[in-house]
Amino acid sequence: MSPAPLPDPTSSTEAAPPRHRRRWLWGGVAVAGVAVAAVLAFGVFGVQTLVVDDTVDEGALELDSGAVIPEDGPVADGSGPSTSAPPAPEVELEADADAGAPAPPPATTEPAVTLVATGGFTGEDHPGEGTANIYTDGTQGVVRFEDDFATDNGPDLFAVVYVGDERIELGRLKGNRGSQNYVLPEGVDPAAVDAVSVWCKRFDSTFTTATVA
């Protein structure tokens, strides 16, 4: 009696998965791929912001001094309003009648702002338009995007200024359209600002810039 043949180790004894199971596996892979793509598109790249505008309409801003940043553009021709009070009218006094009268109180000065610099936004990595004005009351500085400002929306956008090559963040962009105010950080000289920009921090991309002078 001849011995039974040994099994061929190269042959597979496992049956291939059924065709419907293979379709299910491929379907699961496709769904997972779509989910990953959606997370990347919406969670990382923020593509939804490119088609949705955020419009802001900030009015006048009152500073700590009581001075008010105007909402209707420059307050003067670039030199700002005078902070000195008008001179008091001259009154001739008779020495005998008013010799013991108390002196009048000193004139008070109203807090006021000065337009330091202005410029128009132009496109860089994205289109941009509108006006950026920089104001100061002598203590605080404010960057104001006027109501004609507009650029594309996007993820992780910040309003920034440049002093030389140094980029200084003012805060997250409040909207890609419309008027908005940003207070300069303490220690930043408003007159030293060279440019105002909208910057995407996530991708280090400058959307639009206004060179100011």
Automatic annotation (TrEMBL):
Signal peptide: none
Domain of life: Bacteria
InterPro entries: DM13_domain (IPR019545)
Coiled-coil residue windows: none
Stored Pfam families: DM13
Disordered: annotated segments: 65-89
Protein name: DM13 domain-containing protein
Keyword Nucleus (UniProt): no
Keyword hit for Cell cycle: no
Positions of transmembrane segments: 24-45
Keywords tagged on the record: Membrane, Transmembrane, Transmembrane helix
Residue ranges of domain DM13 in the record: 113-213
